[in-house]
Design a protein that fits this description.
It contains 9 helices and 13 strands. It is of the alpha+beta class. A hairpin with a 4-residue loop joins strand 1 and strand 2. Helix 3 crosses helix 4. The longest helix has 18 residues.
Length: 330
Amino acid sequence: MTTHPLSPVTPGSLSLPMAIPFRHRTFPPDDMPTRYAGPVHGHWWARAEEIGFTISGRVRDRYHLALRCETCGHVHASRIYTLMAATPQCPACLVARLEADAEAAGLMHLDRDPDHRHYSWYGAACGHALRRQHEIVRRVARGETELRCETCHAATEAAEAAARGWTLVGSDPQGNPSYRLYAHESGCGGEQRIARANMRTGRFDCATCGCGWAASPSYLYAMKFTLACGREVVKAGYSRDPLSRLIHQLRIDRAMPCRILSMVPIDTGHEAIRLEKSLHARLRRTHPDAIVDPDLYRGQIRVRSEIYDAKLTLLILTLLSDLDRDAPED
């Protein structure tokens, strides 16, 4: 749980007044720290009154003034340069606006982030403290976006995994926000990347001890087709039975010349699909011009992508051959 550095929040505590140390307290002129003896020039007075402040005196050093806000009466120290060249903000009025924005968003403003002026700590209804950008909270208040508690969300994901006999280990080691890393608690104990949507629906299998395609032996393959227009194309993919996939799934026109060029055995379907995705990503990145328009093979090959010009045949076979050489011997 991420905790607020000044006032940690516990479930149920947000309904009670919270003692939050205020970083910008009002101080009367007689008690100002390190008063500085020096004149207050007339043009300083004029500028302060123009933007809604009254000068209460000089403090700290020759560079600072004490400004009293005419709206709320709060006194704060401000640099003379800021007063003259910009528009200083009253810290109390700023916090009041943040508190109003937080209330409109269903939150409680706890304290401003001392490390970043655009962020604050907020108390959520669930009892957890959240660090959020001020603009995000305003967008939540306007109904333009929603706010999610990371602690509660992680608990929900852990519960989803536990209901299916898995343990949530953490985020995806490959950085995909749609995936998580899980351990098969009720099975082999092995760790596996699984899409969170699949964990919720149960549409997955353990790649180590499962009995579905993910755990079954598979193949990476390369196939060659000759289209009706005479153009030769090559397809790379994976399947537990490449010959059956070619004859019964991919080929629509039974008279179309086609054949399997290479098959590389892979221990599991889970590993095969990982390698296949990596292979296609590389081909799309390095040879985008070799991707064949699906309109050319529509009605002849039952796929919508992953078909390349035959000029990539040698490269695909080389990549598959490298995988075959890297495979461990029995």
